[in-house]
């Protein structure tokens, strides 16, 4: 009995799709949920998984054909040919039974779950290639989500015999990334895998590893637009029909060859040749979207003050050696600032609240996010229940989170649930700035560079180490008086550290 492969539901407004490419041909063995054909609509590309295991018996529609939702694509015959892929990979037909046994021993490495709110990840750089021998816990590949980067380790020692996804692909939890043969008998596997990259490296337009979708190619020909002029939004940068429509709407009407021969306006061909186009990472895309959303949603306002850092610096100088010897961590500024923030949040609870529809949610705890810059972008790990910690415990936790951030080891639990954020631009030399809210929080404190300035103290001009502080807040939740008072309380705590000890 044959199992039917049909066009799945593609969304309320999508009634048809174009066959972009078949991953299998008749006679090939198929495993359940393995991608067998890719469909392209005017909005997205979709891989259709096999509804059952077996052999691809027939293909009803060809690449480039347009089909409606529910249309028959092909048929899968049950059972027969199940050992076919193993035989193909291992070469000799007579060894199919042995190869089939070996295939059963292969270890699948799949996309791990990254948290409840994370449904997909982008495949980063592979640390291995087909044929490499790995040890257990060796890093195989790095995955990027919209919140963090995550390294995928090898679950066992063995030989990498298959890499199922390429750098730049988007994958969901549970999707096969690669296979490892722990038996050490995978000498013939690398040669079999050579064909996959070759197909991916087929000539493509606009820097993509994929040719334009058939419907996109047809429309580009009609509108006299070349693929180099269109930014592809499909998998691996593939140009879709919707991309061509958008390019045409933007006024792109002629091939780039003509443009280069007679550049219009300020465009300079020499400049274009020196440009580098790099795709934004998932993390960077999310940072951009969330920061802009915060500006568009919140009634954001910033109030400023300055603090004399002399007392904190003297305290550090006096106790730093003893502090490090006892607690195993250096005494920095962040412990004092975090503690001062917790004191101020208790006095001004509006700054520690958030809007949920028409309700205000007041947090009776202080989960303080500490912004950390990494080479992949800004991340904000959270010091949980900071109000219950000593300065030493806060410094230890910030140190641990900072190391995890730089090593790409932060998990979802490390970066969710914050109620207030501290951003220290001073480490980069910033003298003054207005931080953007970390939605849905209602406040963020910006620290800056310590700069010696002449100050009037008791009628005398003296040189003091001063720092500008900036509190950005959501004026929908926090009144001006509350914001100013909050910042003054932080200033008072830092200029008179005994207040932190006495809880004043």
UniProtKB/TrEMBL annotation:
GO terms for cellular component: cytosol; oxoglutarate dehydrogenase complex. It holds the Pfam family Biotin_lipoyl. GO terms for biological process: L-lysine catabolic process to acetyl-CoA via saccharopine; tricarboxylic acid cycle. The keyword Transferase applies. Residues 211-248 form the Peripheral subunit-binding (PSBD) domain. Belongs to the 2-oxoacid dehydrogenase family. E2 component of the 2-oxoglutarate dehydrogenase (OGDH) complex which catalyzes the second step in the conversion of 2-oxoglutarate to succinyl-CoA and CO(2). This is Dihydrolipoyllysine-residue succinyltransferase component of 2-oxoglutarate dehydrogenase complex. It comes from Roseibium limicola.
């Amino acid at each position: 009995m044959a199992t039917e492969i049909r066009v799945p539901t593609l969304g309320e407004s999508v009634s048809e799709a174009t066959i972009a490419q078949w991953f299998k041909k008749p006679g090939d063995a198929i495993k359940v949920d393995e991608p067998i054909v890719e469909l392209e609509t005017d909005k997205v590309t979709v891989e259709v998984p096999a509804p059952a295991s077996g052999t691809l018996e027939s293909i009803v529609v060809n690449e480039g054909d347009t089909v409606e939702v529910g249309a028959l694509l092909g048929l899968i015959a049950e059972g027969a040919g199940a050992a076919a892929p193993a035989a193909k990979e291992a070469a000799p037909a007579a060894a199919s039974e042995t190869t089939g046994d070996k295939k059963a021993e292969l270890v699948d490495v799949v996309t791990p779950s990254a948290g409840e709110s994370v449904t997909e990840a982008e495949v980063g750089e592979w640390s291995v290639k087909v044929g490499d021998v790995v040890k257990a816990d060796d890093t195989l590949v790095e995955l990027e989500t919209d919140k963090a980067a995550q390294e995928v380790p090898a679950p066992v020692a063995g030989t990498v015999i298959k890499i199922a996804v390429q750098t730049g692909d988007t994958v969901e939890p549970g999707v096969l990334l690669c296979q490892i043969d722990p038996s050490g008998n995978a000498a013939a596997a690398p040669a079999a895998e050579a064909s996959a990259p070759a197909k991916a490296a087929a000539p493509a337009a606009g820097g993509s590893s994929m040719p334009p979708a058939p419907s996109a190619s047809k429309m580009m020909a009609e509108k006299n637009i070349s693929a180099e002029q269109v930014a592809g939004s499909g998998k691996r940068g593939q140009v879709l029909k919707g991309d061509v429509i958008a390019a045409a709407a933007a006024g792109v009407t002629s091939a780039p060859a003509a443009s280069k021969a007679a550049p219009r306006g300020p465009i300079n061909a020499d400049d274009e040749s020196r440009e580098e186009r790099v795709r934004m990472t998932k993390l960077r895309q999310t940072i951009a979207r969330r920061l802009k959303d915060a500006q568009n949603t919140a009634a954001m306002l910033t109030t400023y003050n300055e603090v004399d850092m002399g007392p904190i610096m003297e305290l550090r100088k006096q106790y730093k050696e003893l502090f490090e010897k006892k607690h195993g961590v250096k005494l920095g500024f962040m412990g004092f600032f975090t503690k001062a923030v917790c004191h101020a949040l208790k006095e001004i609870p509006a700054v520690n609240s958030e809007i949920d529809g028409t309700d205000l949610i007041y947090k009776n705890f202080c989960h303080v996010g500490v912004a950390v810059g990494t080479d992949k972008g800004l991340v904000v790990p959270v010091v949980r229940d900071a109000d219950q910690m000593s300065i030493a415990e806060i410094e230890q936790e910030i140190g641990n989170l900072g190391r995890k951030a730089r090593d790409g080891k932060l998990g979802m639990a490390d970066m969710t649930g914050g109620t207030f954020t501290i951003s220290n631009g001073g480490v980069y030399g910033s003298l003054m700035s207005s931080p953007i809210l970390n939605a849905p929080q209602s406040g963020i404190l910006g620290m800056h560079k310590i700069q010696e300035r002449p100050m009037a103290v008791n009628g005398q001009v003296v040189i003091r180490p001063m720092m500008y502080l900036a509190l950005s807040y959501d004026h929908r939740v926090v009144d001006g008086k509350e914001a100013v008072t909050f910042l003054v309380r932080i200033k008072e705590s830092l200029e008179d550290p005994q207040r932190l000890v006495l809880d004043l």
